[in-house]
Design brief:
- The complex is a heterodimer of chains A (about 725) and B (about 575).
- Chain A is of the alpha+beta class and about 725 residues long.
- Among the domains of chain A are: about 230 residues, GROEL, domain 1 (Orthogonal Bundle); about 140 residues, GroEL, CATH 3.50.7.
- Chain A is built from 21 helices and 21 strands.
- Chain A starts with 5 loop residues before the first helix and ends with a helix.
- By secondary structure, chain B is of the alpha+beta class.
- Chain B folds into 3 domains: about 290 residues, Orthogonal Bundle (GROEL, domain 1); about 100 residues; about 140 residues, GroEL (3-Layer(bba) Sandwich), CATH 3.50.7.10.
- Helices cover about 45% and strands about 15% of the residues of chain B.
- The longest helix of chain B is centred in the last third of the chain and has 23 residues.
- The two termini of chain B are about 15 Å apart.
- Classes of the chains: A alpha+beta (about 725), B alpha+beta (about 575).
- At the A-B interface, strand 1, strand 8, helix 9, helix 10 and helix 13 of A face helix 3, helix 5, strand 9, helix 9 and helix 18 of B.
- Chain A: One of its GO terms (molecular function) is RNA polymerase II-specific DNA-binding transcription factor binding.
- Chain A: Pfam families: Cpn60_TCP1 (PF00118).
- Chain A: This is BBSome complex assembly protein BBS10.
């Protein structure tokens, strides 16, 4: 299947997804019921889960889903906004290029050539989008947007303390997009309570969030058949199993963890036990029992009242433990063991030492240890004493059906992920241009008359633009530069071959070197070679993110002069004195919900577009700015009168122009860093969509890709 | 790997509730549920053409566990009900019918799901806070000094299950039995926490219901021959019991991950058997009278024990182990050598017993919270239904101990609650309207939907085409016979309200439940003498009903809020 207009196809797909997703977006969004092939039903408003449940087949859709899920892994939020935003961007691009397409169509051109042209054009657009994202967006966010940021930390004190009311409104807004409307307030209160109950001191918030996020499954349980309002938080840890033997104990309760059977076995793996006589068998069995008894006696003498085991213990161990007044809990999962270890610092008991009469050091105290019955199921309730800043609490989520309980559990986990992200700084870096006067504005012009070489487009080959840079004036200069725009840029010495061949590396060339390197006529040999797809997999996005600040080259294209070979002359431009600026979106930055981020950024992008001389940048920033409005439009769709979208929009813009404080109708807050990361993810996804020119359908199993290096090491 | 198939894309349907098919299936489900509701509900026979036993029932748990539903929305409704029933055992039909009614009524109003779900939540919180408040006019506090209230509660539960096929006399007998069984599970002296024991239901099919009885302790079923072997039991002051959870069959225990090499001529079986016999010798020398083993006892050991007049019972199964350890007051022994003398338990008496055609060994404890309920009924289907009913009743009694109050049954709670909500939203709408910006009309519409859903649950109790009414003072539920003359004198036709608290000779005014009427204040604060004197009330479990109400509204909200259904077709 040829996807000539991958952008058009992507637009169709994105529009279809948008209609589904937009109904679940925001506080007014509704629920979606997903059924699994196993017959389970699941309720969800989580965009990532919805997209997954659809099992999409269309290649463009698969690409979008892949990008969404990688974004979710990073931030845990924003899947629905991702789709809406992408759809609006594509729509904007489509509207912009529609006119040009007509003029193109009038030409007598072979279809594949036109397609190639399309690709070329899309690719240019994607390049400029990417350039914009990497160069300008950080700048705009840091320069203009940052003045509107609020913080969830209380500003009064010097030390960072989390403001409870801010946190509540942040969580309320988060749950507003994740769970049913009626449960949103309840869930955000529950989460807030949980967070503050778990936190021993103000400084430990990050540690608490890390722990809760990592061990969320072990710290929560779902119960069906009860109303949601019965959900509760209990102090201590709850293990979802019964005691193998329970001996009530008072006072100091010491616990140990074992990871193997306490009772010695006849033979361990790899060894052989030879039985010569029946008496020998009997004595060895006797010895085993006596030894088990001795270990239990020893544990008893050390005042140990509870034995936690990660494996199933034989009946006799449980019997003798019971006789020694020790309660036993078996079959702990590895995660539970590691959670207890992390909270208490308790390490598993090494059994061989246990029989020796010296002190067992691997024990800790617990406050209590008792059975807990919940909905006629039995649990073990442990009052673990924490050594870190995390005070363990257990959350029990109730709901009428499993699907709803799962949804709440996911949302709660997602909330902690989101908070964890929020309390981290997000780095921004960009260039500050001090003089960009010699900037030649070059609009997106396509060299239509340029005869292109006949490219044999085999089904598995695709045209690819390799940029060859030829330095005429200073041939001796070696030049290293980082590749930014084109996935793989190859430096090649051409006919007057004097400059050594340079391979693209990411090394940073100091400004001095480059500055002495005055803007000269540098020719870029745009050549198209049939290129086999194999090594093009290196992610453009990743490369560029790493090398944003090193980029010193701007390649602009001007129409070629009609050489024999399709050589286009480029002017290599170097921005004169430039400063790298490293900045951050500080931890805990928030903005009011309700499309505030989008409208603000929209405003500043338009503002930037007006100042900008480069028409290319202007267009790009206009497209992004307009696409940003898609989200608030949906959010305010159902509102009427004073709260309708145009009203809000006009009011906000007016407030911005007159430098008045903005008024927000809603009370919730949202994380700026999350939103910003979302924006960059969408732009990266878009550039990828635009650069793809051909989808190759294969009918075979996905094959395991082995890492060559690691295999050799083995 | 080669069998791996590509995933088919899922099917995505928008606005599932608007589809005609969904409405029709919901309607059918509602029909099934309403027609089974209450004491005069009709029975359902679940019939599978693939065979299996016949199931005749009117209970929600039995009905829906056998009924397969395919549509995801119905699945939500039925699983929600099943989850509720597995928690509370009671009020399953109430919950499901209320949920269906709510969905139906709300769709008729044409309000947006957003508004309706928010308003439903407000109305629900009005209900729960009223039911929990002191002033509630449909709640009775349980007086544990007299058994009357608890007996009424149990009788109401048994009466509401017509598939048990009981006569009035049998109902009374069973209610008393169940209450006795429950009282036997309450420990006599408790410290801080009350830990209830349990009643074991022993099946005895084919006998008369009136032959059912309750015995303290445990009945272990055995064949007549087995029983003959251990008779006569020598009498003693107390019987020493050894309770084993380890296998006494002489199998080898886990030998570890490595290999065990046995030299030719060495018989491990003999070695183990020798160990078992030495265990037997120890048991005899410790004067153990009864050996009970969860698993199998080796025949040689059995023989040895019976030679020394020790009763050996094996294969009692894991389910009986916990009650046995409670009755004997000991922990099960998990080892076959070096047994501590402290791990023997004791029972007060051992005696053979015969009920119907079954033989039992009866273990009578000194003081334990375990009792056995021998349950008889004429045939299998009716017995199954009766067993479920008994379990429900026992569970409801446990719930009532935790939350010592009951609700008026027979539809009176529903109509009373509806009257209260109507009055509340009509006279004090500000409390709901202030925060969310709803209009008065929206509130009125959704209140009507909510209240009429409650009232039609009460109305579903009447299956014989009679008139259903409510009075304008208490807001209770009244039903009249179908063959009523056209012009009637209501006080003569009606005798008592649904719960039996009020009779028609008071100066009351009635109104049809379906008709519109002015909101009125139902009388709150039940008079004390009314609750004390009445001995034939219909009562409902407070905890189960309250939770059923909450779950019903939450489930209905959930279903109404659905925007898409994505069906995975793989």
């Amino acid at each position: 299947m040829a996807a000539a207009g991958s952008a058009e196809a992507a637009l169709q797909v994105a529009e279809a997804l948008e209609t589904i997703v937009s109904r679940c977006l925001g506080p007014e969004g509704r629920q979606v019921l997903c059924t699994k092939p196993t017959g389970e039903v699941l309720l969800s408003r989580d965009g990532g889960r919805l997209l997954g449940a659809l099992h999409l087949e269309h290649p463009a859709a698969r690409l979008v889903v892949a990008y969404v899920s990688s974004h979710l892994r990073k931030t845990g939020d924003g899947a629905k906004t991702f789709v809406v935003f992408l759809c609006h961007l594509l729509r904007g691009l489509h509207a912009m290029t529609d006119g040009e397409q007509d003029s193109l169509a009038s030409k007598h051109m072979q279809t594949h050539r036109r397609r190639w042209k399309n690709c070329c054009r899309w690719k240019l657009i994607s390049q400029s989008l990417l350039t914009f994202q990497t160069h300008r967006l950080d700048y705009i966010v840091d320069r203009y947007l940052s003045r509107h940021f609020g913080s969830i930390f209380s500003s009064s004190t010097k030390e960072r303390t989390l403001c409870r009311s801010s946190l509540e409104s942040l969580l309320a807004a988060y749950f507003g997009g994740r769970v049913g409307r009626n449960n949103c307030d309840f869930m955000s209160r529950l989460t807030c309570d949980y967070f503050f109950k778990c936190m021993a001191c103000e400084r430990g918030s990050e540690e608490v969030l890390d722990l809760v996020d990592d061990y969320f499954v072990e710290l929560s349980a779902g119960v069906t058949g009860l109303p949601v309002s019965d959900s509760r938080i209990t102090p201590g840890l709850v293990l979802p199993r019964d005691f193998s033997v329970y001996r009530p104990a008072d006072g100091d309760i010491r616990i140990v963890i074992v990871t193997e059977t306490v009772q010695p076995l006849f033979s361990t793996s790899g060894s052989e036990f030879i039985l010569h006589s029946e008496a020998q068998f009997q004595t060895s069995q006797f010895w085993i029992i006596e030894r088990t008894k001795a270990i239990m006696k020893h544990l008893q003498s050390q005042n140990i009242k509870l034995l936690l085991s990660s494996v199933k213990q034989p009946d006799s161990v449980i019997y003798y433990a019971g006789l020694a007044g020790i309660s036993v809990v078996e079959c702990l999962s590895p995660e539970e063991v590691s959670l207890i270890q992390r909270i208490t610092g308790l390490s598993p008991l090494a059994l061989p030492h246990a029989s020796s009469q010296d002190e067992i050091c691997n024990t800790v105290l617990v406050k209590f240890c008792k059975p807990l019955t919940f909905r006629s199921k039995r649990y073990v309730h442990l009052g673990v004493i924490s050594t870190s800043s995390f005070i363990p609490h257990y959350v029990v989520l109730c709901g009428p059906v499993q699907g709803l309980v799962e949804q709440h559990r996911d949302a709660l986990h997602g909330a902690f992920k989101m908070l964890r992200q929020l309390l981290k700084d997000l780095d921004l870096n960009y260039l500050i241009q001090t003089s960009d006067q010699n900037h030649t504005s070059s609009p997106l012009v396509y060299n239509e008359s340029d005869p292109l070489p006949e490219v044999d487009n085999g089904s598995i080959q695709r045209p690819r633009q390799d940029t060859v840079l030829r330095n005429k004036s200073k041939p001796a200069k070696t030049q290293t530069y980082s590749d930014l725009v084109v996935p793989s840029v190859e430096l090649e010495t051409c006919i007057p071959c004097s400059a050594p061949k340079v391979t693209p590396t990411g090394t940073y060339q100091t400004d001095e070197t480059l500055r002495c390197f005055s803007p000269t006529k540098t020719r870029i040999n745009g050549d198209n070679e049939p290129f086999i797809e194999s090594n093009s997999a290196n992610s453009t996005a990743e490369n560029t993110r790493r090398e944003i600040s090193y980029e010193n080259l701007q390649i602009t294209k001007i129409p070629g002069k009609g050489n024999l070979l399709p050589v286009r002359e480029k002017s290599l431009e170097i921005y004169a004195p430039q400063g790298h600026c490293f900045s951050t979106i500080p931890a805990g930055c928030v903005l009011p919900v309700g499309g505030n981020f989008e409208i603000l950024l929209h405003y500043y992008l338009l503002h930037y577009a007006k100042k900008c001389q480069q028409s290319e940048e202007t267009t790009v920033s206009m497209i992004i700015a307009n696409a940003l409005l898609g989200v608030p439009k949906i959010l305010y769709k159902s509102k009427k009168g004073n709260c309708s979208f145009p009203q809000i929009y006009v009011r906000t813009l007016h407030a911005l122009q007159t430098h008045q404080p903005m008024v927000s109708s809603q009370t919730g807050l949202e994380s700026v860093a999350g939103k910003y990361q979302l924006l960059t993810s969408v732009l990266q996804c878009l550039t990828k969509i635009l650069t793809i020119d051909l989808v190759i359908n294969i009918k075979r199993q996905p094959q395991e890709i082995y890492d060559q290096d690691s295999e050799e090491e083995v | 790997m080669s069998r791996l198939e590509a995933k088919k894309p899922s099917l995505c349907k928008s606005e599932p509730l608007t589809s005609e098919r969904v409405r029709a299936t919901l309607c059918v489900l509602k029909g099934i549920l309403t027609s089974s509701y209450g004491p005069s509900g009709r029975l359902k026979q679940v019939h599978s053409s693939f065979g299996g036993c016949v199931c005749t029932t009117s209970q929600s748990s039995a009905l829906l566990s056998n009924l397969p539903v395919t549509h995801p929305i119905l699945k939500i409704l039925t699983t929600s009900m099943q989850n509720h029933v597995s928690c509370f055992r009671d009020c399953g039909l109430f919950m499901a019918i209320l949920c269906c009614n709510l969905i139906e009524n709300v769709q008729r109003t044409g309000l947006t799901p957003t508004t309706v779900t928010k308003l439903n939540q407000h109305l629900l919180s009005l209900c729960t806070s009223y039911l929990k408040s002191e002033s509630c006019g449909c709640r009775i506090l349980v007086d544990f000094s007299s058994p009357q209230t608890l007996l009424c509660l149990v009788r109401s539960i048994i009466t509401s299950k017509p598939a048990c096929m009981l006569t009035r006399e049998e109902r009374d007998h069973l209610s008393a039995l169940i209450l006795r069984a429950f009282l036997l599970t309450i420990p006599e002296n408790t410290k801080d926490r009350l830990i209830l024991g349990n009643s074991i239901i022993v099946p005895l099919k084919g006998q008369r219901v009136l032959d059912s009885c309750v015995l303290p302790g445990i009945l272990i079923e055995m064949s007549e021959i087995q029983l003959m072997k251990i008779l006569p039991i020598k009498k003693s002051e107390a019987f020493k019991v050894a309770l084993f959870c380890a296998s006494l069959s002489g199998d080898l225990s886990d030998t570890g991950e490595g290999t065990v090499v046995v030299t030719y001529g060495v018989s491990l079986e003999n070695a183990v058997l020798e160990q078992l016999l030495s265990l037997g010798r120890q048991l005899v020398s410790d004067h153990v009278d009864l050996v009970v083993c969860q698993k199998v006892i080796h025949p040689s050991l059995k023989q040895f024990l019976s030679m020394h007049r020790v009763i050996a019972i094996d294969r009692v199964g894991v389910a009986l182990m916990e009650p046995l350890s409670k009755v004997t007051g000991t922990q099960p022994i998990g080892s076959i050598s070096s047994i501590s003398p402290s791990s023997y338990g004791s029972v007060k008496d051992l005696c053979p017993a015969k009920f119907g055609f079954k033989h039992f060994l009866h273990l009578i404890p000194y003081e334990a919270t375990i009792c056995s309920l021998l349950l008889c009924n004429r045939n299998d289907t009716a017995w199954d239904e009766l067993k479920l009913t008994c379990q429900t009743a026992l569970h409801v009694l446990q719930l009532t101990i935790k939350e010592p109050c009951v609700l008026l049954g027979g539809g009176c709670t529903e109509t009373h609650l509806a009257a209260y909500i109507r009055h509340k939203t009509c006279n004090e709408p500000e409390s709901i309207l202030k925060d969310d910006g709803f209009t008065q009309t929206e509130l009125q519409l959704s209140t009507e939907a909510f209240c009429s859903a409650l009232e039609s649950v009460a109305g579903s109790l009447e299956h014989d085409g009679g008139e259903i009414l409510t009075d304008m003072k208490y807001g209770h539920f009244w039903s009249a016979h179908a063959e009523a003359p056209s012009i009637v004198n209501w006080p003569d036709l009606l005798s008592r309200c649904g719960c039996g608290l009020y009779n028609s000779q008071e100066e009351l005014h009635w109104s049809f439940l379906k008709s519109t009427r002015h909101p009125f204040v139902p009388q709150t604060y039940l008079p004390h003498e009314a609750t004390g004197s009445a001995d034939n009330l219909t009562l409902d479990c407070f905890t189960a009903k309250l939770s059923g109400l909450q779950v019903a509204v939450e489930t209905a909200n959930l279903i109404l809020d659905l925007s898409y259904v994505i069906e995975d077709k793989n």
